Amino acid sequence: MRDGTLDYWRRGLGRVPDEVWRTEGLRTLVLADNGLTELPARIGRLSALRTLDLGHNALASLPPELGDLTGLDGCLYLHENALAELPATLGRLSRVRYLNVGGNRLTELPEDIGGMTALVELRAQHNRLTRLPEGVGRLGALRELWLRGNSLAELPGSLADLGQLRELELRENAFAAVPGALRGLPALRRLDLRSNRLTELPGWLAELPSLEKLDLRWNALDPAPRLFDALAARGCEVLA
User: Which terminus, N or C, of the chain has the lesser number of Cβ atoms within 10 Å?
Assistant: First the structure.
């Protein structure tokens, strides 16, 4: 171990090595790309852990004890696994700043995710999400939300409470209308709505005070020259 880090990236381990459980003061644990199919419950005993990378494995479930890692304040990477659900205990991880659960089989996120109040970036792209929980609106520090490649057709009204949100990726979903909750996002700079089912746009898009880029390509939109002109006049790039 060096500087409190154990890095087993791409070692072909197949299981969590015993050294992990014997190491005191472990702060960063990288187990990415090892063909892991199981995460032992004793992961919750690593009380000093601050960053955990479990990406690119074959995990189909996670133990609830993952929520005991309340010292995590960096990254929690769970992307590219086979997860169909996340434990509600993730809501205990109130200090994690970066969460990546992309590339799994999730149909929903737990309501308790709203307890992860330090999150600045949430990546849940390429899952099977059909809805987001209202609890997402409690993530007041969130700056980036990545939801590409799901089956979302609407967003919860609580999303309007994300006053720090700057980047929102909704590409390749099932939106037939621009979600009204976006109207209340004063910090939103980039909005990606490519490859949805949009046919028209609301005039209030021109009122988003911080919008710098709006990507609408690959929708069946009627022309909206007045809206596009209004956005361009204030320096917003529109791709349609």
Answer: N
Select from 143, 41, 31 the least CA-distant residue to 89: 41
Tens-place pLDDT, residues 106-138:
999 999 999 999 999 999 999 999 999 999 999
Side by side, the strands of the sheet bearing 51-53 are: 5-7, 28-30, 51-53, 75-77, 98-100, 121-123, 144-146, 167-169, 190-192, 213-215, 237-239
Q: Which domains does the chain have, with CATH numbers?
A: 5-239 (3.80.10.10)
Residue 213 phi, psi dihedral angles, 5° rounding: -150, 130
